[in-house]
Amino acid sequence: MTEHAHGQIGTPQVPVCPRHPDRVSYVRCQRCGRPACPECQRPAAVGIQCVDCVNEARARVPATRTVLGGRARGGRPVVTITLIALCVVAYLAQRVPGLTVTGSFIFMPALGVQEPYRFLTSAFLHGGTLHLALNMYALWIVGSVLEPALGRWRFTALYLLSAVGGSVAVLLLANPAGPSWSTSVVGASGAVFGLFAAIFIVMRKFGRDATQILILIALNFVLGFVFAGISWQSHLGGALTGALLALAYAHAPRNRRTLVGVVATVFVAALLVALVVARYAPLLG
């Protein structure tokens, strides 16, 4: 008797989404041919592409840059809005009975050596509603221009280091034997003056008329001598710090903007630390 072998007919595999193996999909990506479930489908010029192919193609597209090398993102200035929100939240916290926000984070030269975080935290505190409103208005007006031009990380570095630079100037110009050593300072004015100096330098670089900015800086600086309770030292320190960083950011060679930006930021930060150490060293020795 002749035996006949019967081959087993294979069951065709059901197409499933690579990202979600529990989901059956008969729709395939026009680019890679893999199945894509509705969650992973992206409309394309022709047919449907999977999310992985879309992300891969997007990563290959060179980032659009501004005239100063910042990534052109569009939309609202996220860093500027975040800084304003932090200042507003800190101000509200200052007004909560029982919280010692002002006393814990305010800057004065006598406390800086034991609690160096005060060099920065004082820039997020304010002495009154008008003080807060004026600084936040200036931050919004200038930040809305500088943040897109410089990019987020350089703008953030410019603002924070200018804030620290303002406190450092207060320290350097204070007399350890006088009342200025125990005089407290609050406000974002140092950081704002850093932005003023930076936008002045940027406008000059591109041949724009910066007269109004220069007048604004001069008027605000003079107010520190006319009205009591305004720290012209902080304004000066913030402006000098912002100017130094802006010079590096704005005049860096096109193909070395990132490198120059990082080096300049690290250098200015190290310089501020060195000035603080040099100021406190004789008093601690």
Automatic annotation (TrEMBL):
<comment type="similarity">
    <text>Belongs to the peptidase S54 family.</text>
</comment>
<feature type="domain" description="Peptidase S54 rhomboid">
    <location>
        <begin position="115"/>
        <end position="249"/>
    </location>
</feature>
<feature type="transmembrane region" description="Helical">
    <location>
        <begin position="213"/>
        <end position="230"/>
    </location>
</feature>
<feature type="transmembrane region" description="Helical">
    <location>
        <begin position="78"/>
        <end position="97"/>
    </location>
</feature>
<dbReference type="Pfam" id="PF01694">
    <property type="entry name" value="Rhomboid"/>
</dbReference>
<keyword id="KW-0378">Hydrolase</keyword>
<feature type="transmembrane region" description="Helical">
    <location>
        <begin position="259"/>
        <end position="281"/>
    </location>
</feature>
<protein>
    <recommendedName>
        <fullName>Peptidase S54 rhomboid domain-containing protein</fullName>
    </recommendedName>
</protein>
<dbReference type="InterPro" id="IPR022764">
    <property type="entry name" value="Peptidase_S54_rhomboid_dom"/>
</dbReference>
<keyword id="KW-0812">Transmembrane</keyword>
<dbReference type="InterPro" id="IPR035952">
    <property type="entry name" value="Rhomboid-like_sf"/>
</dbReference>
<feature type="transmembrane region" description="Helical">
    <location>
        <begin position="117"/>
        <end position="143"/>
    </location>
</feature>
<feature type="transmembrane region" description="Helical">
    <location>
        <begin position="155"/>
        <end position="174"/>
    </location>
</feature>
<keyword id="KW-1133">Transmembrane helix</keyword>
<keyword id="KW-0472">Membrane</keyword>
<feature type="transmembrane region" description="Helical">
    <location>
        <begin position="236"/>
        <end position="252"/>
    </location>
</feature>
<dbReference type="InterPro" id="IPR050925">
    <property type="entry name" value="Rhomboid_protease_S54"/>
</dbReference>
<feature type="transmembrane region" description="Helical">
    <location>
        <begin position="180"/>
        <end position="201"/>
    </location>
</feature>
